[in-house]
Design brief:
This protein is an alpha/beta fold and 336 residues long. 42% of the residues lie in helices and 14% in strands.
């Protein structure tokens, strides 16, 4: 089977005939959904089926950013409102035991929503450690300001996801918390010394290095590679992500359509692979860009295929849980 090493978005609530033909021709490994793709449970299930039918009816993974707070693609009236990650950190300062239980239970509720829609993975946890004065592109999406607390709460949150049969994607490796600009629009440059990065920024990623998947940061770290953002840096992926942090799972880029990365779409795809990314991610559903990514995408290498298989193997059938208690925890943290 000729599966290509990219994850694609799509434009609307169902696939156009052009998109169906595109997916049949280029066979992306997976699909990512955004708010523009989500209306009702029946519609989302129909969309994911339409995609999988187009890619030779294989059980291709479907992703979504469902962090809670301002990054939540599914919401009322069909799905609950979920708290931002920082709410867990604030609760942790008052009652650590309750915060851990709540994070796990909310992860389990999120997983139930997604599993019922045939969605494979939620792109969380955000393991970035925000710093004073940084841009709020991360901000309250982070669990806390302390790396150790981030690890505890992210472990609980992702345990709930995994117990519910949904795979986490940790982001944004090796750390986006020092960015002074929003990488959706500009390229952040971090001047912090390597020792500080290792002690603070890398810590949560190293502690959760057994996660199945991770997403890169479109950030330049001058102490690591002054010329290239992490997504396009062989030095950072080979020496930091794979060795210092110790992550051996499936590594995907952040969205290649973000303005932080220069060059043509074809150039960005080639540079990401050359740097060591397993998968390239393209999210905006703009068809001309999709075609450029599909044309430039390579077939899964043997190493990427092994990592992809290992990641998907971590998905389990949902375990039983106390849904009523989980809903009480959700209502309590939302203050409702």
């Amino acid at each position: 089977m000729t599966i290509r090493a990219f994850i694609s978005g799509c434009s609307g609530l169902s696939l156009s005939s052009d998109e169906v033909a595109f997916f049949k021709k280029f066979q992306p490994w997976g699909l990512i959904l955004f708010k523009r793709n989500c209306d009702t449970p029946a519609q989302i299930k129909a969309l994911t089926k339409q995609f999988r039918d187009a890619v030779e009816r294989r059980d291709a993974p479907v992703f979504i950013d469902q962090e809670g707070g301002r990054v939540q693609r599914l919401g009322p009236p069909h799905w609950p409102r979920y708290p931002q990650a920082r709410a867990f950190g604030e609760l942790y300062q008052r009652n650590a035991t309750l915060a851990v239980r709540t994070a796990r239970n909310i992860g389990r509720l999120m997983a139930k929503d997604l599993y019922d829609l045939d969605i494979t993975s939620s792109c969380l946890p955000v393991l970035d450690v925000p710093q004073a004065g940084a841009h709020d592109v991360i901000g309250n999406r982070a669990y806390d300001l302390r790396p150790e607390t981030i690890v505890i709460l992210a472990n609980a949150h992702t345990s709930g996801l995994l117990d519910g049969g949904v795979l986490p994607v940790m982001k944004h490796i090796p750390g986006h918390g020092r960015s002074m600009v929003d990488s959706h629009y500009d390229l952040p440059v971090v001047k912090t010394k390597r020792m500080e990065l290792e002690i603070v920024d890398f810590f949560p990623f190293a502690a959760l290095a057994n996660m199945p998947m991770a997403m890169t940061a479109h950030v330049v770290y001058e102490a690591l590679d002054a010329e290239n953002p992490a997504t396009l840096s062989r030095k950072i992926i080979r020496d930091v992500v794979r060795k210092v942090i110790g992550f051996q799972g499936l590594l995907m880029t952040d969205d290649l359509s973000m303005k932080a990365l220069g060059g043509s779409m074809e150039e960005k795809v080639a540079r990401a692979y050359d740097a060591g990314c397993d998968m390239v991610l393209h999210c905006n559903g703009v068809f001309d860009e999709m075609q450029a990514v599909g044309s430039a995408a390579t077939l899964l290498s043997a190493k990427t295929a092994r990592r992809a298989k290992a990641a998907l193997k971590m998905r389990r059938k949902p375990l039983a849980f106390d849904e009523k208690q989980a809903m009480r925890d959700l209502e309590a943290i939302l203050g409702t």
